[in-house]
Amino acid sequence: MERRVFLHMLGLGAAAACIGCLASCSKSGNTVSPSGNSDPSAVSIDLNSQLQQVGDYVVTNGIIIARLSSGNTPADFAALSAFCTHQGTVISYVASQDLFYCPAHGSEFSTTGSVLRGPAASPLKQYTVHISNNILTVS
Ligand code: FES
Questions:
Q1: Cys-Cys link to 39, which of 61, 69, 71, 118 (CB 3.0-4.6 A)?
Q2: Residues 77-90: pLDDT tens digits?
Q3: Is 94 in the pocket of ligand 1 (CB under 6 A)?
């Protein structure tokens, strides 16, 4: 099956066509680290205004944080390195399939970062989510 057809079936054609849209697709306006490094100490997300709907995600400081379910407990979120372990492309969250997707070559990762589909062979680094006073941080 052609990649383009496969992506269309997943409804991800637009994501594959525009890696740069990932930051703008998030509702936070947070930025992507250009260096490919992740800095969990700099992540601070106000849940009063961000990640309010299931499926929302942001990429900030090299970390992708997605809301998996309603509620404001750490279990309602996933926090992973935003950079695909294949060649470093920024990934996105696909709520309809509850997985993280790399538009470059189609790797897929679970919400804990494990590889579901290659070519990536290594898992994404998973971060621990903390929530205090509706502020989400990671470590
Ligand atoms: S860079 Fe992600 S699959 Fe190749």
A1: 61
A2: 999 999 999 999 99
A3: no
